[in-house]
Each structure stands twice: as C-alpha cells, then as structure tokens.
Amino acid sequence: MSKILLEIDGQQVEASPDMTVLQAAQKLGIKIPTLCHHEKLEPYGACRLCMVEVESRGSTKFVVSCVYPVENNLVVRTRSEKVDKIRKMILELLLAHAPDSRDLQSYAQEYGADKDRFEKESSFCIHCGLCVRYCAEVKKKNAIGFINRGTHREINFIQEIASKECWNCKECFPLCPTEALQAAYVLSGALASSLPIFEQVAEKNS
Amino acid sequence: MDIERVDQIIEKHNSEASSLIQILLDIQSENRWLPKEALERISEKLQVPLTRIQQIATFYKAFSLVPKGRHGIHICMGTACHVRGAQRVLDTVEELTGIKPGETDLDLRFSLETVNCLGCCALGPVVEIDGEIHGNMSPAETAETLKKYE
Ligand code: SF4
Ligand code: FES
Ligand code: FES
Fold first, then answer.
1. Comparing A1-10, A130-139, B77-86, which segment has the lowest mean pLDDT?
2. Based on the domain organization, do A14 and A52 belong to the same domain?
3. In chain B, whose CA is at the least distance from the CA of A203?
4. Fewer CB within 10 Å, N side or C side of chain B?
C-alpha cells in the first residue's frame, strides 16, 4: 500500500492511507485530547474535542482529527490559539452538563476552561456514545442504546438483555467520562422490578 | 395487534432490515401505536438489535410507544393561526377532552397534538382531525365538530 507523507506540528510523519490524523499524531507521540474516541471502536466524531487546524492546498480549516483521513502534504497544527479556544469552549459547554467529570476537569485545567461559564444543566451524559458503541461493536450484546432526540436524548438499557449480560460484564463502566452510565444502570435496575422498560420509555416521553 | 399480522407486514417487506422504518410506519398506521411485542418480533425477524429499533421509534414523532386515541387532533399554533385565535380553540379542545397536547384520554377516543403551521394559513385557525382539515374554526364550531368523532 502506498504511503502518505504529512506534517504534524512541524514533524514529518509517514502514514498508511486508512489512518486518521489522530492516529498519525499518536504515531509521533503527539497527544490530542479526545473524549469519544476509542481504539477498538469505529470513529464517531461526537465530542469535537480532538479538533485540529489543517492546511491543505493553500487553505486552512478546522477538522475533527479522529475522523479526518490523512492526505499527502497535509500540514496539521494540533495546538494553536484558535484550536485552544475551540477546545476551551467545547469543554465549558460539556461541563455545564457534567460538572463533576474528572476527565473534563483535567482537560479544563489544561485549556483554562471555566466550568461555571454556562448555567448548569446537569444531564451527566455527554453523548459520547462509548457505552452504546462498545456494547454493540465489541461485546455485540446491544444491551444499551440511545433513545429520544435533541436535548432529550439519553441512554437506555434494554432490561431483558441487561439483566442477563451486564452483571458479569460492566466493561463499559470505566469508559464513561461522566457518572451517567452507572447512574442509569442502577436506576434502570431499581425500576425494572416495578416497570417494564417500554413503559419507562413511554413515561420519559410523556 | 396480533403477532400474525405483524408477521404479515414483515413478510410484505421481505423481512429486510433496510425496510425497518417502513415496517414500523405500517404498524403505526394500522395499530396507532407500536406495542413492545411487535418491536421484539421485528428485532428477531430482521436481525436488528432492539436498541436500534428503540432509538428509531423514539426519534421520530410519527411513532408512539403508548396507545393512541381513535382520533388524532392536530391544532395549528403557527403564527397565522395564533393571531386568529388558535389559543382559544386549543383551550376549548383541552376543556372538552380533558387532555393536554401530547396526551390521550382514558377512553382512547382522542389524542391531542399541537403543530406549527399546517401550510394553509389563509384558513386559520386550522384544526386537523384524522387528516381532515377544518378551517376558520371558532371555539363553538370546534365543539360541534368534535361531537362527530366517536
Ligand atoms: S453514559 Fe457515559 S459513556 Fe455512555 S454516552 Fe453518556 S457519557 Fe458516554
Ligand atoms: S474524539 Fe474526535 S470527536 Fe470525540
Ligand atoms: S399557521 Fe396555521 S396553517 Fe399556517
């Protein structure tokens, strides 16, 4: 397979055509912050935190490095004033949802993000999809999925599957950057005895 | 809805996973809601995870996971209808049916929704019942019209 040559933060790197900019950067040991990326899972591009600045054919743009494929002669800057500003804003917005997340807090420190900039709207889940995708792609159990849409979107366990599979697995728990997953698991377990899952969904919808 | 009928609908679409939304729409329009048993059956026959079906069924407003009334009332609250008194029409319907937008009465007679412009503003205030458009509605006329739907 032909090799692709690109430049990241002033260093030349050789990559294969199926690599993303994030992977190429990792090859050089350059750290790009990520929240929804997981090496075992398909690229998803949900959190936008891995945004970088790229220059190709004379124009500069901002792209999501975990889904952006490498290309020849690409010039990538993983830190710049603008990139940092974008990341700061993303972190501040996410912190309004999950103010207690350790991952978010440590990134916030690095980028000078103020966790109280936006009014709190604690939904805890930041929709990174790690739990949902891990269960579907790696474990192939599909015990957990998303329901509803927009601001009402949330994760939901399929009780019949969860009661059989989750207790002995729980591999998605440490992936969650917030406390949303564990809370949802405990909650759906507690409700399960009294309400079937579809009625729970209906109730949330009403 | 019995499971044989669900199977028939699935058969009609050759049990293809790519027809998932079409199958859900067929069941929704025939049965007015999507019972859990039907979704489980579809999941099994189409080999599509229930999580995926649930995601779709909760994403689109056309689907309902709870029983709906025999008649669906849509009251237009768009700008044109609003200035012509849609609020009073809505108040009337709420009072007569005892339900608020998004709800269904216990006898499963009516389900009520509001919409934002049905595209026939000149007829405002507009009320749509079971797909039929009723224009220039006054509260009194609305009350009369509702009586026709059992
Ligand atoms: S529950 Fe956690 S892992 Fe799952 S989507 Fe939400 S933030 Fe991500
Ligand atoms: S890590 Fe790239 S969008 Fe989340
Ligand atoms: S505003 Fe009611 S039909 Fe347009």
1. A1-10
2. yes
3. B66
4. C
